[in-house]
Amino acid sequence: MSSVVKILMSYIEMSGITKRFGGVLANDDAGLSVDRGEILALLGENGSGKSTLVNVLAGIYTPDSGSIAVNGKHCAFGSPHNAIAEGIGMVHQHFKLIPVMNAWENISLGSPPADSPPAGGARADRPLAGCGFFDNFISANIINKNVINKKIGQLEERFGLTVDHDKKVYDMPVGEKQTVEILKMLYRGASALILDEPTAVLTPQETRRLFSMLTVMKQEGCAVIIITHKLNEVMEISDRVTVMRKGKTIATAATRATSARELTGMMVGASVSLEIKRTEPPARVGEPVMQVENLSFVDAEKKRLLDNVSFDLYGGEILGVAGIAGSGQRELCEIIAGLRKATAGGARCRGKSILGLSPRQIRKSGVVMSFVPEDRLGMGLAGGMSVTDNILLRSYGLNPGIFVDRAGGSELAAKIIERYAIATPSARHMVRKLSGGNIQKVLLGREIHAAPSVLITAYPVRGLDIGASYGVYDLLNEEKKSGVAILYIGEDLDVLRELCDRLMVIHAGTVMGVVDPRAVSKEEIGLMMLGEKAA
Ligand SMILES: Nc1ncnc2c1ncn2[C@@H]1O[C@H](COP(=O)(O)OP(=O)(O)O)[C@@H](O)[C@H]1O
Ligand SMILES: [Mg+2]
Fold it and tell me: Are residues 463 and 505 in the same domain?
């Protein structure tokens, strides 16, 4: 390679990457480049090929064609060991740590003995072959515990990170596990760090801490590639952004020279309105539609998952629920919907007690409640059945028997398919074979069509494209305007703050407060999610 070309090339360059999984073209002539001292954001909708592209770079997938060059030198990775030998390390969406080991053991696991050069000095000539993970770990463990901890300490200082070296991974909150993963890569000499959706699991505070770590890494001369689908994060942290759509890398822009709106247009291939059109709820007249009082739930292992939860839900409002995943959201929804029994407490709908009633009994009592659960294909829909049959499921439930009104069902299915623009080859198509967005529309369409007075939704946009997500927010707003009382369990705080009229924040099954989401900051909500009471 001529020296001129070498100068023009970035630290890492991928080009012409194509990768198929069976019939799916996950990467289609894709590429990216990143320099030392730079943060590149990789942006794209679900399924656009982001993870595949970085997995190729990290040596986890071998591409069908295309090339990778590091420092102008052509590299054929094909294994994570080779990639890390070139200084490329990846922090996965799902961490690969060993829970029963502590931080320093995890960090040094699989690395050469600790006398090797520190971060930034990764060398391809360092012998990695022949040291099996555990052999290597045991020898490192016996000989080098102090050396390892010292080296970790130096990395912590250099990159502004801190972990408790002796803490077991299973005792760590998610943010700390992520820091351990990052340290593990730095320990192995990574000078390029790939993070696949690192903020998806973090609170705002943890995200802030991660971003300041990434900024230090950049200042220390590392190259960082961060995958996210959150536009505000792209705008905040990245120097450049590469947008993917349908396996292709559509465009790369300097972050400062682009805008969230422009990036969205590139992501979805059309301009969509990214606005949640919230209207003020009507003045409250009369009783709330639903009243939940001192609801508690203790599971089979005696774990208290809900503790004295009380709230009112009025017609024509969206009450949001914010909390770290697993704080009792699921149990709350399932108890109200009659799918699970509470340990104590009560719930009333239009004055009638509904607690302890099955979904069918709730309906028979005259309360129309709709539930769009987290697990669409488990609880909400039957994946192996057609769109029509799934739409009819709601009526089967109330009116079991073999005399199902099929003609009426087809008509209803056609109506829902049209009304919610469900992309399906036909109403007889199996639900499981539809895309995530369309599966969600079948469920929402069915549930909204039932004209509920209470609508409970848990993470209704999870796995959906941006366009489809905003479609769901529009639908919920329409329902709200027609007087439905909506309980919305969400995870994206920006969306919760824009969409909801009131926001209930829970921590470990306890209500920390119900706030006006526009009157409190994201950070304040984050603190409540971590267990601080509302001011
Ligand atoms: N291991 C795999 N086997 C089969 N299909 C896959 C695999 N990994 C990804 N895909 C498919 O490739 C496409 C791109 O996926 P992915 O790279 O994970 O996208 P993103 O990270 O942008 O959401 C999707 O259609 C996905 O279903
Ligand atoms: Mg991905």
Answer: yes
